[in-house]
Amino acid sequence: MIEQLIKTPFTELVGVKHPIVQTGMGWVSGPRLVSGTANAGGLGILASATMTFAELDAAIIETKKRTDKPFGVNLRADAGDAGARCDLLIEHGVKVASFALAPKPELIAKLKEHGIVVMPSIGAAKHAKKVAAWGADAVMVQGGEGGGHTGPVPTTLLLPTVLDAVDIPVVAAGGFFDGRGLAAALSYGAAGVGMGTRFLLTRDSAVPDAVKELYLSHDLNGTVVTAKVDGMPHRMLRTPLVDELEETSAVKRMGPTLKRTLEFKKTSGMSWAELAKDGRAMKKTQGRTLAQMTLAANTPVMLKAGLVEGDTSAGVLASGQVVGVIDDLPSCEELIERIVVRAADELRRASSYVL
C-alpha cells in the first residue's frame, strides 16, 4: 500500500489513509470488497439493507477477520430494527455508520457516544443542514450521475450548494472514477469522494465475471433512470429487461411485482406485519405512495437476480454513468493507488498556475 499523499478532514475523522469511500451497494458491498478497500487505505462500507440481522452480524465478523482497518456499515434509518442494528455496530466497534436517509437525532447521539462516526447520505443542501444540526459528523452527497436511487441535479451543481451549507466534511459521489475526479472534488472543497460502480468493477467485487463484462460493454449512453422498478428514480444499465419494464403497463407489472414481494418476504425473514411496518415508515420518511410501496420489494429481489445470480434476463443492474468510461477490472489496491497518485499530480499541476 502506498504512503499517504493527501490528508483531508475526512481522513483525519475516520482514520483512513486515502480520501476514497467505497459506497454501500446492496448485494455488492460484502466483506470481500469492503476489506479489500480497507486494506488498500480507503473506507469500505458494508451494505446491510439486503441482509438480515444475523447476516449483518456474520458479515461484520468476517470483515474484521479480513482487515484490522476502519470500515463502515450502511443502514436504513427507517428500518424497524434500525436501533438493534446500531447496537450491533457498537458491540463490534464498527468505525462508521452511514445512512441512506437521515437517522433520528437520538440515534445519531447514541452512535456518537460510542465513538462511531455518523455519515448520512443526502441529496440537497437543506438535508445536509438538518443532519449537521442533529450532530452528524460528515455527509455524503450524490449527484444525478450516480447509480441506484438518484436525483436530477448533477454533482457539479449539487456539491457546491452543500459545501456552502455545512462546515462538516463532505464526501462527493456521483460521477467519480479516477484521480482527476478526486482532485476536482477536493478543489471544490470536498473532503473525499465516494464511488460505487468503479468499485463494483474491480477484481475484489463478488459480482459474477459475466455481469462485469456486460457492464464494461456499455458506453456513456448505457444507463437509464427509471421509476418502473420500485416507483422511485433509479439509474441502471440499459438492458432488454429494463426496456421491457419501461414499455409495460402498471397492470401487466402487477403479477411479477407480487411474486417478487413474496420472494422478498421469504428471503428477508420478515412477517407481513413487519413488511407493513416498513411500508408505513417509507411512506412517512420518503413520502412514497401506496403504489410505490407495493413496488419497493422489487429492488432487492431484482438486484439480487442480476448482481448475485448473474441472471440479467430477470434482474436489474444499478449503475452510474461512469460505466461508460471504465474499461478494466483492477484490484481495490491498484485502483486506489492510481487514483491517489493521479490526484496528487493534478493538484500539484493546478497549484503551479497560481501566481
UniProtKB/TrEMBL annotation:
Sample GO molecular function, one term: nitronate monooxygenase activity
UniProt keyword Metal-binding present: no
Pfam name, any one: NMO
Protein name, per record: Unannotated protein
Tagged with keyword Flavoprotein: yes
Lineage: unclassified sequences, metagenomes, ecological metagenomes
Organism this protein belongs to: freshwater metagenome
Keywords for the protein's UniProt record, in alphabetical order: Flavoprotein, FMN, Oxidoreductase
